[in-house]
Amino acid sequence: MPDDDFGYTAWGRDWVRLAQPLLQTLPNPALPRARKLARAGGVQVTIDGRVVRGVVQRGRTTAVACIEVAPMSGETIAGITGQLSGARPVLTDEVHRTITEAGYRPAPALAGVDCSCPDDTGRCIHVLAVYYEMARRVDDDPRIALDVQEFFGGSSGSVRVPTAALPQRWIALNALDPAEYFTASK
To answer: Domain for residue 186, yes or no?
Structure first.
């Protein structure tokens, strides 16, 4: 049964592939638990430049997973920029496909992974849960996928665009306050 909660866009699928590599031949029993943690809101992610920091609450324990994303090369940034049209292009699945077919890979490459738990493999349940939470966020706003790789700033010398200021494609229903949303005007 497909899992439509994570990676329903091509941009988010790039993050799901970090948790579920295509070359993996054996099932990973931690994946369903990691998805459950991300679905239940047990992962709090903050993004600081190229570092994704996830605080993962699992039962009575809390772990901190840090994922450092490698910056995009200048050649890749230039190639992707050449494929985008308009001042603020909408990053659709079609745009992702066009960029990929042109030979530029927008998927994140990892520079380092670390977790505060005793598992030192870099593929613990906490890191996997952060991948899924990032997939969900990237599905909501694909610009995050490029921003975390320093596409909008960093080494290219251009002005850095904060992802919080960019419009989201949709808002989660549980983010709305019913008392403020359902008010009757007098």
So the answer is: no
Closest CA to 38 of 145, 133, 108, 163: 133
3-state secondary structure of 31: helix
Range of the domain at 92: 10-181
Strand positions, DSSP E, the chain: 43-48, 51-58, 61-69, 110-115
What secondary structure letter does DSSP report for 175?
G
Give the phi and the psi of residue 56 in degrees, each rounded to 5: -110, 115
Look at residue 138 and tell me if it is in a domain. Answer: yes
What total of structural domains would you count in the chain?
Answer: 1
Q: What is the pLDDT of residues 108-158, one digit of tens each?
A: 999 999 999 998 788 899 999 999 999 999 999 999 999 999 988 754 343
Using an 8 Å Cβ cutoff, are 115 and 28 in contact? Answer: no
Whether residue 4 is contained in a domain is answered as: no
